Please model this.
Amino acid sequence: MSFALPNCVTQANASDVEKQGGLVLAHSDQVDCSALHDFDSSVLAVLLVWQRQLQGRNQSLVVLNPPAKLKVLAGVYGVTDLLGLQ
Model:
């Protein structure tokens, strides 16, 4: 089972998304970004928090269906490799 990000992740809802996803990621390592269309850099912070949590369990976050804009944003912030978004 993967956690499906909503279509919007911004500073306004990032904390709630992080908490909801954290519950699912306690049993999974996958995040589905196929619905993600409206977002800012807050989504990167959320993904990095989850990545850190999973690393504590010797796992890595698997980001499924990342939109091209997310890959570009990750590149601008230098976190492409950390999030496995090559």
Notes: The mean pLDDT is 96. The longest strand covers residues 30-32. The beta strands are 3-4, 8-9, 30-32, 38-39, 62-64.
